[in-house]
Specification:
Pfam families: TerL_ATPase. This is Terminase large subunit-like ATPase domain-containing protein. It comes from Oceanobacillus indicireducens. With 161 residues, the protein is an alpha/beta fold. 33% of the residues lie in helices and 22% in strands. It contains 5 helices and 7 strands, in the order βαβααββββαβα. Strands 1-7-6-2-5-4-3 form a 7-stranded mixed beta sheet, sandwiched between helices. α1 crosses α2.
Length: 161
């Protein structure tokens, strides 16, 4: 049986404090446990660890507030990782050192504040070639305003129109 692979992208460029982080955390949890992807690897990316941790921390709060999720997820705070025990899948924080990210088997990426990326390397590593072994990878891209017309954020925004 042939496997049909396609990549899905979601673009959200709303103003600050409109609930992007909460939506992204819910999507990260859904990809980790609701897609039923055994060993699914979901990554939260941003320009730095503090920014990438924002969505992760919201996801941890969501898990803590749900007895059903709390019983099935194991948080590993030192690694900024949430493990979904029934499927062996996880949600993990990554940040800008792209040279260390090759070879990941990505099921989903939540990319926070794309406009703040210092260059396009992490975006390219996470979206080009990654997810090829997965049935339905999702790239969930969120950002606030940016004005650099030579950035990866501007390029992705133009392609989303």
């Amino acid at each position: 049986m042939a496997r049909t692979n396609y990549k899905r992208y979601f673009w959200n460029d709303e103003a600050k404090k409109q609930g992007k982080s909460e939506l992204a955390a819910a999507v990260a949890l859904l990809l980790t446990c609701g897609d039923f992807e055994h060993g699914g690897e979901v990554y939260g990316c941003a320009a730095d660890r503090q920014q990438a941790s924002i969505v992760f921390d919201v996801a941890v709060d969501m898990v803590e507030q749900s007895p059903a999720l709390k019983a099935r997820f194991k948080p590993v705070h030192s690694q900024k990782r949430l493990i979904y025990k029934p499927l062996g899948s996880f949600y993990q924080v990554l940040f800008a050192e792209a040279y260390t990210k090759h070879g990941l088997n990505v099921h989903g990426v939540v990319f926070d504040e794309l406009h703040a990326q210092p260059n396009r390397r992490l975006y390219d590593v996470m979206t080009h070639g990654s997810g090829d072994a997965r049935k339905q990878p999702l790239y969930f891209l969120i950002t606030t305003a940016g004005n650099d017309q030579h950035s990866i954020c501007y390029e992705v925004h133009q392609n989303a129109l």
